[in-house]
Amino acid sequence: MTEYSAIEMMICVAARELENGSTVGVGTGAPCAAAMLAQKTTAKDLSILFEAGGISPQLPEMPISVGDSRTFYKAAMAGSMGDTMEACSRGFVDYTFLGGAQIDKYGNLNSTIIGKEHRHPKVRLPGSGGANDFASFCWRTMIMTVQDKRRFVEKLDFMTTPGWINGDDSREKSGLPLNTGPYKIITNLALMDFEPKSKRMRVISIHPGYTFNDVQDNCGFELLCAETAEKTHPPSMGELKILREEVDPYRYVIGR
Amino acid sequence: MTEYSAIEMMICVAARELENGSTVGVGTGAPCAAAMLAQKTTAKDLSILFEAGGISPQLPEMPISVGDSRTFYKAAMAGSMGDTMEACSRGFVDYTFLGGAQIDKYGNLNSTIIGKEHRHPKVRLPGSGGANDFASFCWRTMIMTVQDKRRFVEKLDFMTTPGWINGDDSREKSGLPLNTGPYKIITNLALMDFEPKSKRMRVISIHPGYTFNDVQDNCGFELLCAETAEKTHPPSMGELKILREEVDPYRYVIGR
Amino acid sequence: MNVLEQGHGKLFMDPDPDNAREFFRKKKRKMDNKVMDLKTAVEKFVNDGDYLAIGGFGANRTPVSACHEIVRQGRKNMGFAGHTSTHDMEILSAGKVYNRIDVAYVVGLEARGLSTCSRQYLESGHVEITEWSNYSLTARLKAAAMGVPYIPVRNLMGTDTLKYSAAKIADCPFTGKKLTLMPALYPDIAIIHVHEADIYGNARFKGIAVSDIDLANAAKRVIITTERLISHDEITRDPSSTRIPYYVVDAVCEEPFGAYPGTMPYEYFSDEEHLKEWLEVEKDSEKFQVFLKKNIYDCKDHEEYISRNGGAKKRRELRAKEMLL
Amino acid sequence: MNVLEQGHGKLFMDPDPDNAREFFRKKKRKMDNKVMDLKTAVEKFVNDGDYLAIGGFGANRTPVSACHEIVRQGRKNMGFAGHTSTHDMEILSAGKVYNRIDVAYVVGLEARGLSTCSRQYLESGHVEITEWSNYSLTARLKAAAMGVPYIPVRNLMGTDTLKYSAAKIADCPFTGKKLTLMPALYPDIAIIHVHEADIYGNARFKGIAVSDIDLANAAKRVIITTERLISHDEITRDPSSTRIPYYVVDAVCEEPFGAYPGTMPYEYFSDEEHLKEWLEVEKDSEKFQVFLKKNIYDCKDHEEYISRNGGAKKRRELRAKEMLL
Known about the structure:
The complex is a heterotetramer, with 2 copies of chain A and 2 copies of chain C. Chain A is an alpha/beta fold. Chain A has one domain (about 5-245): Glutaconate Coenzyme A-transferase, CATH 3.40.1080. Chain A is about 25% helix and about 20% strand. Chain A has an 8-stranded mixed β-sheet with strand order 2-1-5-10-11-12-13-14, with helices on both faces. In chain A, strands 3-4 form a two-stranded antiparallel sheet. In chain A, strands 6-7 form a two-stranded antiparallel ribbon. The longest helix of chain A is centred in the N-terminal third of the chain and has 12 residues, at about 5-15. Chain A is globular, with a radius of gyration of 17 Å. Chain C has 13 helices and 12 strands. Chain C has helices at about 15-25, 40-45, 65-70, 85-95, 115-125, 135-145, 160-165, 210-220, 230-235, 270-280, 285-295, 300-305, 310-320; strands spanning about 5, 50-55, 80, 100-105, 130, 150-155, 170, 180-185, 190-195, 205, 220-230, 250-255. Chains in contact: A-C, A-D, B-C, B-D, C-D. The interface between A and D is large, with 57 and 64 residues.
């Protein structure tokens, strides 16, 4: 069997989630690698939007910034932040990929501070950037992150970006656009979704070599497990070849 | 003495009102001729904005539409309606020139209907166009119109565009941007402004050959007359030469 | 939110962004070849009863050939955005295509005079009318493009235009000032004429944008008529020039001289003689029907219309006029 | 208007459009020659205590030379729009230029990592912080550009970002939906880097606009730094390409390679080695001061900075990288 790293696994699993002919708002790093891999495998007609204004580029290599010149290389349009975000707000963008320093059981994300005091945090992080916007507007939020107890927490220090908020119908009631919300979580251990009623995080597929207990042990809150939970297909030779040779030959992302 | 027509008189008087180095939002016809004449006489650095998006063109001839290609010929920018109107709304545009089928003593304008029933008017007119916007946003509204009792009325059939509304502080109270409002009225008989307190129309200069009584007789409401009311300077030879030879050689406007 | 005052004009279109989002969610995002002839595009995407908005500015970069085709196909009971509508409205009025209209600028052809046909149709009482201003409609399209139900603007206050609009005045929670809230306008169908587009609908134009970028984004369906098709490679070579992205577009129709008898900047100037003929002949309703038969109903397409009004010679003249030669 | 919920973050700038209008009323509209050197422009138009916004996107088409000059001149107590701020913020943090910040994206340099200097400065408690998102700040600039006190957006709801913002949630009088109202942001001073500008400030750039058009319009004062001055005739030959009109601009400074070590689309790519050096050297505050002395305080201008970091050879390399050669 082919050797692969945790990050390669995550990127391959994420890429498979992207429907052909759909649109995705992404940032740099692993999400962008996943979108690029999808374009070269199962979703040739996937259209990528960057928050700074790049719309449907033909990415020649991994961008280093969501506003660098690669993000509108041979693009359909080099627009503005308004152009991208308005498209999201109008309902034109199907997916977004986000990460965060902390995530809770409803898929809410923290990328603002570690610590309880806003003015005197233990660690100051970048803040929302476009994450709150993408997660508010895009139909389906996908989250890619390495999983451990410090990251998967019972309570966020700061809720930067909305997931299902307090579960149940709290997101709908908040006033955010209807029928949006977190869709899948892709970690190094498992693929998760959210139980439709309570909106709690639920394991639906466990990566090769791990058990549900491993997934739960690396999580600071109680996970649900779908009855039909399966074993995740490992990255195929073909996926890995394209990822390593075409998507990220300089190992910017997969080499981390 | 030089012969001149009523419309030539109006254009020359209007042109003199435009300060050098200022900005003006204009339409087609006489207002545009006045702005062009001003640029060629006392206001070389007058910048013209058209509502459709033409910003600071070097007009090669009279435009026939506020969106035709002349309105952005050798312009600083060919923008959008948003660009022009946002500039007005932000307070960047000093003057606008408007007209209308009816005007009342507070400088309110009607360009929507003649008759009392909106659904069944005697005459349907074009509506606001950009007039309500310009009159709401630009600092000083100037009105150019031929004067008679059918046009200068006690009560408008429809108030399309705001002047001083009901006089006194009613414009300020309406919520429109502060310190804006009608500034001068230029007719074939006189130049008028508005009495500062009541905001009623007031004659400040009477064109050669007319008396205050002539002006009042051609007006459907009672006019005020400034104590200092003067005789309007007739168009100079120089003004007429430029108007006839450079601004409107084909007599689109002055030939009417 | 405390509404201080509101217009009693009818709001023809639903400003709810969630309803629009459900529509846009289903819209195809794939770069499909959308080229078709104009007849097919109008058959497919312009329906009786739809709310229609026309790009450009009255007789400037206006999709005149599409207006003719709509009349030729006999569309009825449409809503119409009378946003700087001049010659486009004159054509649609001749076909009595619409029965409700948001008015900003109608009936007139600017310096050219008023259209008898448009005037009589609006005066007939058969048309429901809501009043706005040009920038009000621009702001309504901007709100829709932004996916929000309204945008505040500081106009209309104190006037009858407000009373006959469907806007609402409310105070601002930051400043206490009164603001006029303009409800989002999502037209069912927009038709926009451009200089160049690729087969997927990525479109660009030169000169003033008027409100076409927001219009393209706000509309549920978009037909692009273009002077020329260009290659997708040409679009991607210079993505800074793309004004309308492919994913909002449903049909691309190559219509050279598609804005005739209006102006197409950098291409051809308006045919003022022919526009004057329109205004003149409208005054006699019998003559006008003969004129419409000749110029619209009996023409199979825009090329035939142009050839009946001067053809290649006229085209050369108008091009020279545009270029100030 | 019923406010349902509101952030308790500080609103640093007055959103009142009438106050802004009084300022803009006095702004000169004449096409004056506004060319000056950057030192003079910063002396004249960037004051201690002003609220500053930087164009571009962090390290893309960012006026880096102006950020250096601000630090070199020792500006203090400024407000700052942390709108996709990355390397620009890193520089301004090094100079402790600001003491209050609207945060959308700060501290990080995207995929490159976090800036120790920016982090420590924000963690020190010496900086007042209000939280937003990128699009929230874009919408705030758009509201200011439109001359209205707010624009509604459908984000932030349900989060702590809202609680630490200065936005307000109110219901929509058309749909009953909740909306987040973003107060207008009129920065005192904006600095924007472009490809080309004429002496009056008519400016154009290629590639993504980010939020620079609204920023230019919203700001009370604007400094344009440009890769190249071009003739006014070239601007008027192609007015469709003008993105920023002269009347909002106060100063035009010709600063070739002015975005170095960031990317200038179609001109040069970012100097990743040097950006890495910044991030690395910040970790040791003594070394960092030496580094700053060398690269900012002891440089008389941007050209000297570039020559200390590879000069013409580096410039050629970065150009080749941008062109994918």
